[in-house]
Design brief:
- This protein is mostly beta strands.
- Strands 2, 4, 5, 6, 9, 10 and 11 form a seven-stranded mixed sheet that branches. The protein has a four-stranded antiparallel sheet with strand order 1-3-8-7, with no helix packed on it.
- The model has no long low-confidence stretch (mean pLDDT 97).
- 0% of the residues lie in helices and 59% in strands.
């Protein structure tokens, strides 16, 4: 089993910054892509960013230039630096990781429990 634990959410004023972290632990042989999704009230979960194990990233258009994803492969941890936050960034943020648990296993996607980010105007 693999567990993802997120931290770093909270309440911030518009224009402020937050840094989210997500650490994976458990039966991990290797991790391919990691990423962040978010879900605002009444809306579907949407991709915010994905980052490969080589550090290549892609971002939703709504966060480009404001959010930066990074990862520490030695710590199985992914980060999301969020700057110039807007009220519309308010959502529960979920991290995910595509994990290979052994040399013989396939790849399974695991999710964190979510962390609330609230941006006040």
């Amino acid at each position: 089993q693999v567990h993802l634990v997120e931290s770093g959410g909270g309440l911030v004023q518009a224009g402020g910054s937050l840094r989210l972290s997500c650490a994976a632990s458990g039966s991990i042989f290797s991790i391919n892509d990691m990423g962040w999704y978010r879900q605002a009230p009444g809306k579907q979960r949407e991709l915010v960013t994905a980052i490969t194990n080589f550090g290549s990233t892609n971002y939703a258009d709504s966060v480009k230039g404001r959010f930066t994803a990074s990862r520490d492969n030695a710590k199985n941890t992914v980060y999301l630096q969020m700057n110039s936050l807007k009220p519309e960034d308010t959502a529960v943020y979920y991290c995910n990781a595509d994990v290979k648990s052994s040399i013989y296993s396939g790849i399974a996607r695991y999710w964190g429990q979510g962390t609330q980010v609230t941006v006040s105007s």
